[in-house]
Amino acid sequence: MPAPIIAIPADTRELDGYNWHATPHQYVNAVVKGTGATAIVVPALESGNDIESILDRVDGVLVSGSRSNVYPELYGKPVNEADGPFDRARDTTSMELIRRAIDRGIPLLAICRGIQELNVALGGTLETEIQEQPGKWDHRRPDVPERDRMYAIRQSVHVKEGSCMASILGTGEFQVNSLHRQAIGKAAPRLAIEAVADDGTIEAVNVIDAKNFAVGVQWHPEYWVESDETSARLFKSFGEAVKAYAAARR
Ligand SMILES: N[C@@H](CCC(=O)NCCCC(=O)O)C(=O)O
After folding, report:
1. Ligand 1, residues 119, 141, 184, 218: which to mutate, most atoms within 8 A of Cβ?
2. Which of ligand 1's atoms lies nearest the C-alpha of 220?
3. Of 195, 215, 233, 245, which alpha carbon lies 20 to 30 A from 160's?
4. Containing structural domain, residue 217
5. How buried is 222 (Cβ within 10 angstroms: 0-12 exposed, 13-18 middle, 19+ buried)?
6. Is the Cβ atom of 90 under 6 angstroms away from ligand 1?
7. 92 C-alpha to center of ligand 1: Å?
8. 17-47, pLDDT tens digit by residue?
9. Where residue 144 sits, what CATH number does that domain have?
10. In this prediction, does ipTM exceed 0.90?
């Protein structure tokens, strides 16, 4: 059977003076090594993507992290340029893919910016500069030059008993990385909160009554997928859902 295909929405990036549609290699690598599927990158467009046509041809959606933030107006907050950088084309593409994948029962894994887009797409809100809130830990990307140290596993998350995430990872405390300054504020009605950090930051959600795998995590399992058991389990579970969807589709 041909390898299943997982769609990854791109970011808009300016390189050499012009715009590119780009996603970091770590997400493509995690698709290939962590699920056994093939990755395709979906251009970030505010208009012009035929989302249904794209979803007709894929077996899963992986929504990646990004330094850019979801545009605040999309969750009812005023725009403060300090909350940027923004990427409206990424917002549009990701959220259309998220909503339609959930409706169609296409397996979905949303990571970091992805869980934030998932929450906004389903009607939730975000908080910004969470490290400035009383009692909050500093979840931001460590200010170090080496990417392995940026993505170092350095915080605990607590997975709720009986949750979807518990069926994937197990119940209890797990060690993960952290590279974000925003987080879920008001969780969307259709999201079950399934893991939190020591400071209460929402770290994992599951779409209630989803037809298929539909999970969001605030940490970055893609980065250590080949060496960290917790990361590998999440991608293995996503991959199983993608393969089952692909087999049923053929
Ligand atoms: N911009 C959002 C989401 C953070 C995120 O996706 N981080 C991954 C990229 C990390 C990096 O290279 O800086 C937020 O800040 O909450």
Report:
1. 141
2. 8
3. 245
4. 5-249
5. buried
6. no
7. 18
8. 999 999 999 999 999 999 999 999 999 999 9
9. 3.40.50.880
10. yes
